[in-house]
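Dig into this one:

. . .
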Amino acid sequence: MSGIPARQAERTRRSACGSVPDMATRCDQCGKKLRGSGHQTYTRTLCASCNDAYMGAAAGLIAGGDVETGIATAGWYQRIRKLTRRER
């Protein structure tokens, strides 16, 4: 044998054949299982709440230019999105 555990070898085979590997169904930031395909960034697949934090931080950095503004805007944006999701 090649020294690779059977489960890992199965994942590798499935991903090499074009099917989605096991980790593609989880958020890259927090590890929660994704509903649907998740939100794609350039380097990650995120759940809705992690995507809200990411978008809020990006907006804060663009608007204010410093880390403190990015963090504050991320928290504000997450609260707004959570409230609007409940209303639907």
